[in-house]
Amino acid sequence: MTEGLLIVLEARGIAIADGFREQIDTCYELPLLRQWIARAATATTGEEVFATGRCPTCGAAGQVAF
């Protein structure tokens, strides 16, 4: 799932900061990863993809709906 997110971000030309890259690599919360992928489909910046809230497991940015 993380590879899919990185592919979408790269295909859309969205640069990601090292901090966001680390969050992607260490996050295993599927609902959050799905949300990031959905946001990446329409976002114009990395900040838009990773905005709001924190993952309860890994601390990554993102609104998680369980």
Order of helices and strands: HHHH
Biggest sheet record: none
| Rg over alpha carbons | 10 Å
Q: What is the first-to-last residue Cα distance?
A: 17 Å
Structural class: mainly alpha
Strand content: under 5%
Mean pLDDT, nearest integer? 81
Helix content: 40-55%
Outline the low-pLDDT stretches: none
**β-strand number:** 0
What overall geometry do the principal axes of the alpha carbons give?
A: globular
SS field, number of helical segments? 4
Keywords, please?
about 70 residues, mainly alpha
Task: Describe what this molecule looks like in 3D.
Helix 1 (about 1-10) runs parallel beside helix 3 (about 30-40). With about 70 residues, the chain is mostly helical. Helices cover about 50% and strands about 0% of the residues.
